[in-house]
Design a protein that fits this description.
- By secondary structure, the protein is an alpha/beta fold.
- It is 39% helix and 13% strand.
- The chain has an eight-stranded parallel beta sheet. A two-stranded antiparallel sheet has the order 1-2.
- Helix 1 runs parallel beside helix 2, helix 3 crosses helix 4 and helix 7 packs across helix 8.
Length: 282
């Protein structure tokens, strides 16, 4: 039985709180990795056009035998600097993603980066409004948007993003942004929820809590996210870790555990690991 709880997005769509991410998974490996995740019980899969693995992801979805109604599939528009992005370009990119995935709709479609220096994400969002209205994306949202970017959308569109997927982990907890999301009915989704590399998972504050609960460091950090209400999409190509990352519903962190993890962002290791959305335009 799938034990992952669901959150209700601002348009009523239900989204599993824990999913499987495929960033940096080559297309040739995506079919097997996603297939393993679906066998383990994951029902939410997060990919993106720029990941180059939508075809492999789609093959796994088709081969899984899981009813489409049980799946929650996210992909993202790569609004890169190679061209000007308007309605027609967005709709073509969306059709291309659907074709590679082999689907007639996705459950969530995201603008991958705001690229504020290009001043075009509002025009892109207008095309997302059209996609949402068509029903070919059950929900639409954004990724890596800052408060200023969300304010800009709010000033120019009545459609509130269902989700903002951002870098978020105990070393970069994004309290201000999470509070803004909560005030506007935007779900917070964490990419790189375990940080990158082993730094976060090797910190004494994390390993001591893991030992206390008889769990892995990764399970403790994922549990921290879940208890804060974040949606998480850990990724792995190792079958044992894929299963381990899903096995986080049989224990709870207590107040002391949560406080210790909350404090890491203000400590010497606290920082952003990925690109700054204010500057990213690759």
């Amino acid at each position: 039985m799938n034990q992952v709880p669901a959150i209700r997005l601002n348009n009523g769509t239900l989204m599993p709180q824990l999913g499987f991410g495929v960033w940096q998974v080559p297309d040739a490996e995506a079919e097997q990795a996603v297939g393993t995740a679906l066998e383990a019980g994951y029902r939410s899969i997060d990919t993106a056009a720029i990941y180059g693995n939508e075809r492999g992801t789609g093959k796994a979805l088709a081969a899984s035998g899981v009813d489409r109604a049980e799946l929650f599939v996210t992909t993202k528009l790569w609004n890169g600097p190679q061209q000007k992005w308007g309605r027609d370009e967005v709709l073509r990119a969306f059709d291309d993603s659907l074709g590679k995935l082999g689907l007639d709709h996705v459950d969530l479609y995201l603008i991958h980066w705001p690229r504020p220096m290009r001043d075009d994400f509002v025009a892109i969002w207008k095309a997302f409004e059209e996609i949402a209205e068509s029903g070919r994306a059950r929900a639409v949202g954004v990724s890596n948007f800052r408060p200023a970017d969300l304010d800009r959308l709010a000033a120019e569109s009545a459609l509130v993003p269902a989700v903002n997927q951002v870098e978020l982990h105990p070393l970069f907890p994004q309290e201000e942004l999470r509070a803004l999301h909560a005030s506007r009915g935007i779900a917070t989704e964490a990419w790189s929820p375990l940080g990158q590399g082993k730094e976060l998972l090797a910190l004494p504050a994390v390993t001591e809590i893991a030992a206390k609960h008889g769990r892995s460091a990764a399970q403790v950090v994922l549990r921290w996210h879940l208890q804060h209400g974040n949606v998480v999409i850990p990724k792995s190509v190792t079958p044992s870790r894929i299963r381990e990352n899903l096995d986080v519903f049989g224990f709870e962190l207590d107040a002391d555990d949560t406080a210790a993890l909350d404090a890491l962002g203000a400590g010497p290791a606290g920082r952003r690991i990925g690109p700054d959305p204010a500057e990213f335009d690759v």
